[in-house]
């Protein structure tokens, strides 16, 4: 393959064909990494502002140190990297349903993976985040069942009503959000990335389960630089214990 485009890996999975590609950004010496599932783009290193903002915004309201954090969805690793850049983060569990993506990080095929794998605070876990978050028992850390966290940051589906798989829908219901909140410490934060503008119905559902809810619109330039696009970061804060 040419220096301008390379398919780094191609894997059939139960969810569809997974590919990792590298391409050279025109007119630069910058490599862009992309993950595709079938015909859908899951993530591109050309657009990382919202993934980074998910961690920055999600952790900003927490005031103490030694934060225990979960990231649902590894992707190209930018949310996890941003979380680890926060010196107050003491531990990070990153859950992904695709072992191939975890392997790409551990072998350094994805550049950020070298940093994540070298950080002693970070652990990459193969698992179904949605099942782990919404089922009784187990929890979000296979090594510590029932463990609670200061923050759960999720970037998997395109939006609460635009899912990669129908089985994910339960998380966005009142029951699913209630189950997820049980994995948070009092005052803990649930932050969710969405490709779509804030959705009032979902905001109302979050407000039922969490004591405080805010929707942050994150804007950034598109690939051509001709106009801005925006994503949403929803943040729900669990009520402190009485």
Please tell me about this protein's structure.
- The protein has about 240 residues and is α/β, with parallel strands linked by helices.
- The chain has a single domain (about 45-235), classed as Vaccinia Virus protein VP39 (Rossmann fold), CATH 3.40.50.150.
- It is built from seven helices and eleven strands.
- The strands form two sheets. It has a seven-stranded mixed beta sheet with strand order 7-6-5-8-9-11-10. Strands 1-2-3-4 form a four-stranded antiparallel beta sheet, with no helix packed on it.
- A hairpin with a 6-residue loop joins strand 2 and strand 3 (about 30-35).
- The protein is globular, with a radius of gyration of 17 Å.
- The protein starts with a strand and ends in a 5-residue tail after the last strand.
